Amino acid sequence: MKRMSSAERRSELIRAAVRVVGRDGVAAATTRAIVAEAGMSLASFHYAFQSRDEMMRDLIAYVVEEESNAAMQSLVVSGDIRSTIRDGLQAYLDLLVQEPAHELAMFELLHYTLRTPGMQDLAQQQYLNYHSSVTRVVEAGARTAGIEWTVPSVDIARMIVTVTDGVTFAWLADRDTDAAGRVLDFAADALAALAIPLNDTSFSSAPPVLPANAFKETHR
Amino acid sequence: MKRMSSAERRSELIRAAVRVVGRDGVAAATTRAIVAEAGMSLASFHYAFQSRDEMMRDLIAYVVEEESNAAMQSLVVSGDIRSTIRDGLQAYLDLLVQEPAHELAMFELLHYTLRTPGMQDLAQQQYLNYHSSVTRVVEAGARTAGIEWTVPSVDIARMIVTVTDGVTFAWLADRDTDAAGRVLDFAADALAALAIPLNDTSFSSAPPVLPANAFKETHR
DNA sequence: GTCTATAAGGAGATAGAC
DNA sequence: GTCTATCTCCTTATAGAC
User: Fold this and answer.
1) Counting beta carbons within 10 angstroms of the beta carbon of residue B21, is it exposed (0 to 12), middle (13 to 18) or buried (19 or more)?
2) Is the CB of B7 under 7 A from strand C?
3) Quick check: pTM over 0.85?
4) Strand partners, B149
5) Can you give the pLDDT at residue B70?
6) What is the rounded radius of gyration, in angstroms, for the C-alpha atoms of chain B?
7) Contact A158/B164, CB-based, under 8 Å?
8) B208 backbone dihedrals φ, ψ, rounded to 5°
9) pLDDT for residue A78
10) Surface of A (177-196) touching B: CB under 8 A
11) Sequence-ordered list of residues with C-beta below 8 angstroms from that of B169, at least 6 positions apart, any chain
12) Phi-psi bin for B118: left (phi > 0), alpha (psi -120 to 50), beta?
C-alpha cells in the first residue's frame, strides 16, 4: 500500500471501522475485519494504533461528534409547537426505519463503553453530548415557535432523548412502525403541553427570529 | 461431578449463564466461563447442549419468562392514578439503581438476538411479551383506580415500556438519578392525563375490585 | 454420563525482511 | 513505513478413556 501519514491512516481506519460496526456490529469489528475493509495489512493497524481499545476510543469520540453535529442541522418549523415536535420526532423515526443498523450500532457502542473498564467516563460524555445538543435545538425551537417552556429546556431535551431511545429499542425488536408513531403522537402532545405562548404584545411586535432549521435527527 | 439428568444439567447451566451474563456481560459468557460458574467440566456443556447458540436461545426464553412474571406481581395502588403510575415507575427506577448490571444484561441479550441470524423472531417475541405483560398490569391498575383509559391499554403499555427503556439507557450512561426522576414525573403526569374517572354512579356503588397489587417492576 | 486431552480456528499483537 | 509470517492466547467443539 502507498505511504501515508499516521494521522491519515488513523482516520482511514476509523472510517473503515465505522462501516464495519454499522454493518456487522461491534463484536464483528475485529482488527482483521477493519483492515480488510480499509484495504490495509494487519500490521498497519498496530502501526497506527497501539491497541484495538485505543482505536475504539477514537471511533466513539468520532461518531459522537458526528451525531451531535447532525442533531443541530435540521429543525423545520411547522406552524405550532406541537407539529414542530411531532415532525422532528417523525424525521428521527424515518431515519431509524431507513437505517436500523446504524441506530443499533450506536447502542452497541454505548454498551461497549459501559462494559469496558476505564471507559465509563466516555459513556457519560456520550449522553452529556446528546443532551446538550438537543437542548440547543429545543431552545432554538422555542424561540422560533414563539413559546416558552414551563420546565428547564435541558429537561425537555432529556425527555426527547428518552422517548427516541425507547421507541428505537422497541422498534428494533418488533418493527411496528405504526405503534411507534402512536407513541410519538403521545409524546408530542405531552411535550407541547409544557409550552406556553410568549406574550409578544409586551414588546413591539416582531416575533423572535433566529435559526431557520434545527431538529429532525434529534440525536444519534 | 455427580450424575444428573440432562434436564437438570441444562437448567443448572442456564442459571449459571444468567449469573455470568448479569455480572460480566454477554461477550464474557463463554462456554468456559459458564461451566466454571456451574462447577462442571467443559465437555458437560456439549453433552447438555448441542451448541452455545442453542443454550443462548434457552437462556433468553428463560429470562423473558422470568421478567414477565415479575411485572405482574407488584402494583401498589396509591390513591389516584397519577400517584399509582409514578410509584410504579419509581419502583422500577429503584430496581435499576440497585442492580444496574441486570438491566444492562437484558439490553445486551436483546442485541444478541438482533444480531444473530435466525433469532430476530426471538427479539420480537421478547417485546411482545413485555408489552402484553404491562398491558395486563395497566388494565388491572385502571380497574383498581376506578379510571378508564382514553386510548387502548396496549398503547399505554407501550408508552410505559418506552419510557422505562429510555430512562434506563440514559441512567446507565450518566447515573443521574435526579434527572431520571424528573423524566418519570413528566411521564406520570402525561399518562395520567390519558385517564378519565369512571362514572361509578351509573351502576350500583361498589368500585371495581380485582388485583391487590401488580406493577412495580413494570417489565424486565 | 463424566472426565481429560486435543483438535481446529480466530483473536490481538509483534518480529523482522524489505 | 509497509509488508508477510508468526507468536500466544482463547474460543467452540469433539474424541476417546474411564
Assistant:
1) buried
2) no
3) yes
4) B195
5) 83
6) 20
7) no
8) -55, 125
9) 75
10) 179, 182-183, 186, 189-190, 193-194
11) A107, A110, A165, A166, A169, B107
12) left
Residue B4 CB coordination number (10 Å): 14
- Interchain contact, B114 vs A161, CB within 8 Å: no
- At B135-166, the pLDDT tens digits run 999 999 999 899 999 999 999 999 999 999 99
Q: Which nucleotides of D are covered by protein (CB under 7 A)?
A: 1-6, 10-16
User: Which is nearest to B45 in space by CA: B59, B63, B27?
Assistant: B59
At residue B197, φ and ψ (nearest 5 deg) are: -60, 140
Provide the CA A32 to C1' C9 distance, Å, integer.
14
Per-residue pLDDT at A70: 83
pLDDT of residue B201: 56
The pLDDT assigned to A176 comes to 98
Calculate mean pLDDT across residues A49-71: 93
Which cell numbers hold the place of B153? 391499554
For residue A160, the distance in angstroms to the closest alpha carbon of chain B comes to: 9
Instruction: Specify whether the CB–CB gap between B192 and B205 falls below 8 A.
Output: no
> Cα(B12)–Cα(B18) distance, rounded to whole angstroms?
10
Contact B21, B105 (CB under 8 A): yes
Angle B81-98/B177-192 helices, nearest 10 degrees? 150
